[in-house]
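User: I would dearly like some help making sense of a protein record. This is the protein in question:
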Amino acid sequence: MLPEAQSHKQLTLANANRRDIIVDFTHAPDELFLENIMEQTDGRGPKGINPKKKVNLLKFIVEGNPVEGNLVIAEGTPLRPHVALNPEDVKITREFKFNRSNGAWQINDKWLSPRRADAVPALGQTERWILKNGGGGWAHPIHIHLSGFQVQSLNGRTPPKEIQFNNDTVALEGGDEAEILIRFSTFTVPFALHCHILEHEDMRMMSVFDPQPAGQLSPCDGVTAIDPMISGIAHHPQGLFGDRGPVDIPLIQDQGVGIPHTDFTPGGGGVAPSPTEVGRKHNSGKN
């Protein structure tokens, strides 16, 4: 959400990034294309810009008589107010590391559990979050729900101007580290932060945070069950916790990947085995 207009000939967009773009076709040819010039040869992430290997995404056909108008959007044109978060107001710093472990994807070496809040920010309080890509050459576009954030630094340097203002997604290449400021001021229910590569978030590279009034605990205590048919959370009548889902566990185990529990459906047989136990059983079954 830029406070003023910027002029660009190209933009970098990661998964979940959006940009509002105005194109001036006054002196354009009859046909022109929106092109992808970011080369990618495998699932780990882009290899860099290569205009010689462009992919046409969208074709524009310019026709008809010129249209008279007085709309002028130039570099620096004001778009919307911007309130910068003040680093001096930071009360707490949190770190989130995105890495691969146990054959799948994790944040801070934890599997996602929608019953567990990994952060409980105080409403109205500015926080500093350090987002780290654990390396391995994999790119992770990190998306945070509920509130925009402001990138203070990327790998210790001033970030590109287009990401210095309110964003909800920041792209981390392998080994990248972003420092952001964020403040939650509205809702007090669980929300998610996650990698926006579908395979990674489906493999539980996701974490729950639950903003609450200062000093109040989150009901996402690791025990309270999730009822997928209602909004919010509810205690399971049998007090089940860590129960296995009937669908994803067998399928993932077939690939030799251990996922401890899904937490979404009741009656799955109590606490699921650890990833090590799952892998051991899977391997012994093959032999």
